[in-house]
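#struct-pred

JT: dropping the chains for the assembly here, can someone run the whole complex?
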Amino acid sequence: MRYAMAIDTRKCVGCSDCVVACQTENNVPIGYCRDWITETVDGSYPNVEIELRTERCNHCDNAPCVRCCPTGASHIVEGGNVLVTPDECIGCGACIQSCPYDARYSHPEGYVDKCTFCNHLVIKGQQPACVSVCPTKCMYFGDLDDPDSDVSKALKNRKYKTLAPEAGTKPQIFYMI
Amino acid sequence: MKEELIISGRMNPGIDPYLNIWHWHIPVYLFLGGLAAGILFFAALYTIMGREKEMPTAVKWATFLVPGALVFGLMALFFDLKHQLYFWQLYTTVRFESPMSWGAWVLMFITPLSMVWAASYIKEAIPTWEWRFKFLDQLEALVVKHRKALAWAMLALSIILGIYTGILLSAFNARPLWNTSILGPLFLVSGLSTGAAVIMWMSKNYMERKVMSMIDLVLIIVELFFIIHLFMGFLASTAVQIEAAELFLGGPFTVSFWVFVVILGLIFPAILEILKLRGYKIPVAVPALLILFGGLVFRFIMVEAGQVTRYLY
Amino acid sequence: MANRRDFIKVSALGIGGLAVSASAFNILKAAVPQDLISKDTDPQKGLKRYPTYCEVCFWKCAGWTYTDENGKIIKIIGNEEDPHCNGRLCPRGTGGVGMYYDSDRLTTPLIREGEPGSQTFRKASWDEALGLVASKMDEIKQKYGPEAMAVFNHGSSGKFFGHLLKAYGSSNIVAPSYAQCRGPREVGFAATFGSGVGSPEPTDIRDTKCLVLIGSHLGENMHNSQVQEMSDAIDKGTTIITVDPRLSTVASKSKHWLPIKPSTDMALLLAWMHVLIYEEIYDKEYVEKYTFGFEQLKNHVKNMTPEWAYGITTIKPDVIRKTAREMANAAPATIIHPGRHVTWYGDDSQRSRAIAILNALVGSWGRRGGFYFKESMKLPSYPHPAYPKPKWSWKDTHDGKYPLAGLAVANTLIEASIPSEDNKHQIHGWLVTGTNLPLTMPDKPTLAKAMQALDFMVVVDTMPMEITGWADVILPECTYLERYDAIRTSPNREPYLALRMPAAEPLGDSKPAWWMAKQLGEKLGLSEYFDYEDYTEVLDWQLQKVGSSLDEMKKIGIKKFDRKSGGLYLLPGEDYEFNTNSGKIELYSTDFQAEGFDPLPKYTPHPEPPSGFYRLIYGRAPMHTFSRTANNPNLTDLMAENDCWINPKVASQWGIDNGQYIWLKNQDGIVSDFPIRVRITERIRWDSIYMVHGFGHKDKKLSRAYGKGAADSYMITNVMVDPVMGGTGMRGNFVTFLTDDPHV
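RK: done, full complex below.
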């Protein structure tokens, strides 16, 4: 079982609903965010193109943050989601330094925090808060190993890319372009 | 025109607009760790080579600084932690893939070892010294008896300590400036060089000073070579690493790096050393201080500039 | 090496990590089985939910407010049964919790001490505040008659204060959303199809094959169900044609983006009509059967060729033809979207007429993939005595102008509040609720003059917005999460009812609008109009009349009813009488002709920016609603200030850098109070600048919003009034840049 997410950049309008929904679902403190929207613009008026992406921790297969954690607070659970155990985290910041996506932040209470793919919802068969709220339904989540899951079906007939593949982390969020 | 921006207002404290999560604590610790590694290395080396008589400062007196430096460094690290109450979790597990875990355990061994080593020479420095407790006398006797074995252990541990300070940073490949395998050897050489500088400064023995200053000269030349190699590597690598190198070649860190670290911290002391060897009278404090200063500033710059570099945005 | 963690397990919350394998090489990592995750940390425990519908904007999506085991509101999730949101709220709806937790909220009634516009208020009790309001309203009634009192409103509270005002004897109830926003298209479409567009618009985007957006930035405006349907349309490969001087989000997802020169849209619409008619690709049967005035229209657009339009709009003739053919090809499943905020240049009713005519030519009105026939549920009114008949109303303040205005026009009522020789129908008192007039209305000087001249103004609001600084009495309203409100009866494909009930007690001393209206009514001697103790009695009575009950609605939140008014679409060949003078779709408008306006829309050129000035274009961001959310902590996290979009060529001419802060000065010399951050982008033309509306707040009590960004509304001093219905065209303002602080 390998959880992954597919984002259809053709449909994302950059509304940032995923950011607020994550904030209210996971009690993220004001001033912090676990996910964010990136806009890239290319061209010269009027031949301009834009791409909108919602980004977060990629729950990488080859996660450098898990590798470099000195206490094992940063760990991988069944399904591949990368999580942090707050009471084992010493707040050294090594994982923050090791993430090429800058997806982690230091929670005001001292431990390191980031997107969890809403593991607490996923184990109950629900979807992450960001996926359930997205008004354009551009986010797909599910088990990559299951050919009938939302994410497998979404990726089947579309071209897709990952972010910073050269960092070698094998990210599990796929952007359909 | 190309734009790439985050439009959902992300401004995570310490992460945006650029990473700023490690402050002075880390460079200070890296410096003290490198210094301790250097001193302990020479202490162990000359003990193994049997030259304690000719190199008393290296083998004995300089090591008195090490426990203090290591403890101070560890305290700096402790204060850098953001979840301090849980610091002991570090010692509940060994994680071989995490250089930080190695560091925690190496320090766990090398600090008491350095204390024991230094303590075993107290009686030579203060002849009237008496240990409070009987078992300390026994410990001292044990240390003196197994001096050579202890020296080998210290040699290995000091090399690990020196090189680990560099590998710690280079393990974070997400920071393009640190993503180079030359950082480990560079920090090791820099640490040895600062250790040699301290020994040279403290020494009252003309021969010892001459040997250490020649060693220091060689180490400085190696360090300069490594630095050139570092930049050549960056400029021949991926776009993010070229950008990282450009921070030092016209970017905000150019002046502080080339002036304080390279010129004042390496080249100028090297010239002073050469002049001294030629016979000119130069107070030994000057090159030593410059080398120490250069080493400290070098680590400050590497930690700060490294956090500025990133893969995305 | 044995993993020490198996032995040392201190924390009950630990997710027992199994060791990552002891090897420097990357071999299999043993992952933690999911069932070791402690259920004690289940954040879903003890959650309760209450039905509500959102009040952050006017889309009114139904949802559930969740409270945790301590009764604290933690999140709001959409109601899956609701066609407005299909279970997915927009970012403002999701961020509605921020409205509740905003520390700057009004929590007690306030009474002014000092000059209007100054902000010295003292706390008062409800009794004193309401007593003062009632006594002032009585005074106005005695001195000038009840008609001299007006209510300015937006949102749910308007219902209660409107009822109060009518019982009191005035019908001067006005919403700026008419003449400052969608009024012209209501008039344009009503004149053509006999029915206004309404809200939400009955656009069948779900089944459309060609969506034409001219003046709509769907995706940046979060009109929830329309954005959702647009996303489905993108999946289906629907053709989207966007006409916009700026590369809006939806323009970037369109098959055709027409980067039109601002203010020339009418020419494009007329050229499209020309192509459809003269290439004979319009829906001939539909036009033959259902429309009136085709020959006049055909004659009218004879010379309005794509070549003619090219010279005006800078859109190439072949593009105009190609897009017109796409529309015809997809017909009748083609929507030329009516837009929403259509008050641009003063000829907006006519431009809406042109859009309506185009829709008629492709036969989309009443057809699948075009516009469906909406229906809303009719709820009986709670019994009350008949309203007294006012001696005059807002229509009389027009002095014969704006004959086709169907609802009150805010700008004329504001002007009517200024005393003058000719003012025979002066307004002396305002009750303002749910609208922040200083940031909503253009032409701030006139507004300020009117507010100064008033005898009395009471403002009902949740936040200390700019308008509260002008009030004599401020009444703190609790947010939508803390109150009951009228049942939502918005029109849709099928009629629905949605309930709003409180999820928490009102914060501080704030109260719901229904309570305030009732208390005021009683103090004014109008208690027969408020013959209930608690509003829940009214709700239950109304729901029982349609076969439901308050208890049922509390459990389900939203209820669907059967359509009674006939089919969603016209059946093929069905006879249908449109609610117009001729009974048909009026391509040639008899209503307009009767009042002396052009029965067929004409192109009129509009003023262009002088040298060194740039047209001020404004719009929305999906994470904010007008100026209302600029202080919401969850939403300021997303966007704390607006940016001024400047084209790179212009920026390099001025030597302005990205991220630099500049001040704006408009053509009348008005300078923005605060600087605005520059975003240099290729998405905007070189003759215009763009900014999101709703920032530049001047009220210091809004701790997060004060001083952030610039207010476009203060820069809008040139107002082009639509002679047909009084709409205020606001896009005829031009700004230049000041790089040094002009306020020192």
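JT: nice. Confidence is low (pLDDT under 50) at residues 1-29, 36-41 of chain C. Residues 77 and 593 of chain C are 49 Å apart (CA to CA).
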